Each structure stands twice: as C-alpha cells, then as structure tokens.
UniProtKB/TrEMBL annotation:
The keyword Kinase does not apply. Residues 87-268 form the ABC transmembrane type-1 domain. This is NitT/TauT family transport system permease protein. Keywords: Cell membrane, Membrane, Transmembrane, Transmembrane helix, Transport. CDD domains: TM_PBP2 (cd06261). The chain crosses the membrane at residues 36-58, 94-113, 125-147, 153-172, 193-211, 217-237, 249-270. Its main location: membrane.
C-alpha cells in the first residue's frame, strides 16, 4: 500500500464516505433567530415588570393602562371595528408615502450625488430639512393643504424622503471609481451611467436609507393622524385617550409597535438578501 492509499484509508469511513466536518453543520434554529428571540424575551420582561407595578399599586392603571388590560382593549377595538380598518388606513398612508419618496428621492439623490454643482447647492438645504423636526411645519402644511388626505400625505412624504435622499447622495458620491472607469470605457452617457452603474452600485445605501425612511414614514403617518386625522391608528390613540380609555389606547399603541417591527425587519431582510455581496454601510 502506498502512502497516498494509507492517507485515503485514514480519511475514509467504513462506508467510503468522508466524515462530516464543522463546515458541514448548519446553524441551529436558536442560532439563526438569536436576535429575534432575545428581542422577544426583552419585550416580555418589560411587559412583566409593567404588569407587576400595576399589581403592586405603584402606578394607576386608569392613567397608564396595563398589559393585560391592553389585551382586553385589543379585543374591544376589534369588536367595535376600530382595529382592522384604522390599521389598513395607516398602512395605506405609509405605503403610498414610501412609493412617492422612493420615486422622487432615489433619482434626485443620484443626480445630486453625481453633480458637484448640485451637491454644493442642495446638500445644506437637504441637511436642514432633515434635521428640523417636521412637526414644526404642521401649521404651514395645514394652512397650505388643509386637513384632508393630501396634507397627511405631504407629512408622510416629508418625513421619509430626506433620510432616503441623504443615503442615496452619500452612496452616489462614494461610488467605486472602477465602476465609473468601465462606464467611460464603453462611452456611456450620463443617463446610462446613472441607470446601469450608479443605481446598482448605490443599492446598499438605498436600502439603508429605506430602512430609516420606513420608521420615519410611520412616525409621520401617526403624527398626521393625531393632529388632523379622522381615521388611522393615530386617530384611534387620540380618540381613546381623550375618553380616558387607556387600555384601548395602549392596545392601539401596541399595534403600531408591531407594525413598526414588521416593516423594519422586512426591509432589513430585503437588505440582507439584495446586498449580501457588499459590506455594511451603517
């Protein structure tokens, strides 16, 4: 027997199959979903402490509600029709606002990021509009657009488009120089370069901005419903709080929290699926 035959015999099993290595083992369910499970445990602990303070008499449930009371309030909202329809109204505002923000913010961000002149002119204005809370513009928006659906849509788009644009501009300005070199080698025009080179190259930044925009869009929708809405989860919270139905209000807030988690987790999943080839952009 030669040395190679001896080595092959040592590595082989009686069935002639190589033994499984650590690289062949797939992560367990706990390992794959560790962050989600830890988040659920953390949320359960917070709710348990909250309920314990209510039972101990340290807080008044008439003013703060309680987790168990919120469960009853959730059933009451469902039976009264103040759960499904308002949730769909809020999701409709969020979805439409995101679509408009993406349709306007992504092309504008690419153009501004690839233009030295436009970036110098508009970058400070975009930063100001992003930094100043949009709530301070509510009186002006109401004066211009009234208190109907168009005004609420303006608030939703306003809250989402600027974080998205900031990320897209940053991605366009940090585009890999080799991509642009290939584009110039093929004599591609500016529009072709933006569509075929800049857009795919900035996809990690676009999805990172979208992840921020989703949260801000939901905030904008809820704020608009609180101040000028006649439907939606924000209006339900405002109406139930005005009637001192704190359990119902907490139930609606819980639904808002669930919607926020689902939306942000969905965008994070999409980001991981589409940009697995890229490093994290923050």
């Amino acid at each position: 027997m030669t040395r190679s035959d001896t080595r092959d015999a040592d590595l082989s099993t009686p069935d002639g199959v190589l033994p499984a290595t650590a690289f062949d083992r797939r992560p367990t369910f706990l390992a794959r979903n560790r962050d989600v499970l830890l988040g659920l445990v953390g949320g359960f602990v917070v709710l348990a402490v909250w309920q314990a303070t209510v039972w101990a008499g340290w807080v008044d449930p008439a003013f703060s509600g309680s987790p168990l009371g919120a469960l009853g309030g959730l059933g009451h909202l469902y039976e009264s029709g103040n759960l499904v329809a308002p949730t769909l109204d809020t999701l409709r505002s969020v979805g439409l606002g995101l679509l408009i923000s993406m349709a306007a913010g992504i092309p504008l961000g690419l153009v501004i990021g690839r233009s030295v002149v436009l970036h110098g002119l508009l970058e400070p204005l975009i930063g100001i509009m992003y930094s100043v809370p949009f709530v301070v513009f509510l009186p002006i928006i109401i004066f211009w657009f009234g208190i109907d659906d168009s005004a609420r849509l303006v608030i939703v788009v306003w809250s989402a488009i600027f974080p998205l644009m900031i990320n897209v501009v940053s991605g366009a300005r940090n585009l890999d120089a080799s991509y642009l070199q290939v584009s110039r080698s093929f004599c591609a025009g500016r529009v072709r370069t933006l569509w075929s080179v800049a857009l795919p190259g900035t996809m990690p930044y676009i999805l990172a901005g979208l992840r921020q925009a989703v949260g801000r869009t939901l905030v904008g929708a809820i704020v608009a419903e609180l101040f000028m809405g006649t439907s939606g989860l924000g209006y339900v919270v405002q109406a139930e709080t005005s009637n001192f139905e704190m359990d119902n209000a907490m139930a609606a807030i819980g639904v808002i929290a669930v919607v926020a988690v689902v939306l942000t987790r969905g965008v994070a999943w999409l980001e991981n699926r589409l940009t697995f080839w890229s490093g994290s952009v923050g």
